[in-house]
Amino acid sequence: MRAAPQEEANMEELHVELEGGRGRIEGRFDPRFAAVAKEFERNFRERDEVGASLCIQLGGETVVDLWGGLAKRTEPVPWDRDTVCTVFSATKGSTAMCAHILASRGQLDLDAPVADYWPEFATNGKERATVRMILDHSVGVPTWREPLKDKGCTDWDYMTGRLAAEAPWWEPGTRNGYHMISFGWTVGELVRRVSGKSLGTFFREEIGEPLGADFWIGAPADVRERVAPVIQFIPPKDEEPAEFGAAILADRQSLQSLALFNQGGFNPNDPECQAAEVGGGGGIGNGRSLATIYSPFAAGGTLNGREFVDRRTLARMARVSTATNSDATLLLPTRWGLGFMRSMDNRRRPNGAKDSAILGEHAFGHVGAGGSIGFADPSEALSFGYAMNRMGPGILLNERGQSLVDATYLALGYSGNETGDWVR
Fold this sequence. Notes:
Largest sheet: 7 strands, antiparallel
CATH architecture: 3-Layer(aba) Sandwich
Structural class: alpha+beta
Shape: globular
Helix content: 25-40%
Order of helices and strands: EEHEEEHHHHHHHHHEHEEHEEEEEH
Distance between the termini: 14 Å
Strand order of the largest sheet: 1-2-4-3-13-12-11
Number of domains: 1
């Protein structure tokens, strides 16, 4: 464990005007992390960042808190300190936290059959599925074969009912494939059944409010007023697609295509979807709130006198549960914990730099489509959050987010990650 961070009085202020009416960058940083602040600025000057926020905490104390750019690309609306955005699958980390809190309290047995908590799910070949399989993406319901109704994503009972009735794409537990948006309803329904509270309510009461985190699974109206709209990424026409994209182009009924497009009308810029509890991809927050919700898990499971999970549960959260050379959904090598991504280095594959997220050996968290990320590294008491409105290329991190992660580990005294590992 590293020493406690310097006092806030040593933080440096950052105020940078961006050229061309693209807003300004503001915030504070510990001088030890000056190189991180430079990379954040470089994202705007060289990597087409539009609006973004970044926060790093050590032991729950903030050492970097930056934001800047524009909340809307076509209007002079600044991204300010309290701007939030949809973080897509970075939401999965917050959803998984809820399950682990219940497990730590002895209310949810990860090795028990799902049927013990959700009897309706144990049908059509899912009878022997366990809670663990739901968390590590091996349960076999990464999407729905038949079309979902429009705005189905806003109807919790409809989405969970469809998942309960769905036949698995493979025998549960025999392989893993990324549950792109269905994860939020499978894990979330377990949280609801065990706690008696909706996923969004449980998260707010047990994590968001105790930590003072501006992160939401189901955003209220006053929060939705502060949401920066998502700017979709449009790949170049001459770019050769990776396996995932090629599978979609080859077969519109493929698992990959259905996982991406059969999402019950989920639209991150639709206020109804922002208000819905879409635990697989609809969370709303910013870099500060992502770092904040991971801070207890970076600090040993307890923060400010409140235990979120015990030490045994924390160790299990960080453990690799499934790994494969070809994820059934993403068609690339992946490593999953119980609801969290572990470091994945696919840089030597075609387009692999866009399909990687290179973190510390003990780190666990989750990326979101377009490049957002939140994670904890308990070996450093480090929690990290980055969120932005302009989506970038690839399935995992792109160079904007990875450059910030890289600069963070370098500032902590690590050497390069050429081998895929951060070492001192």
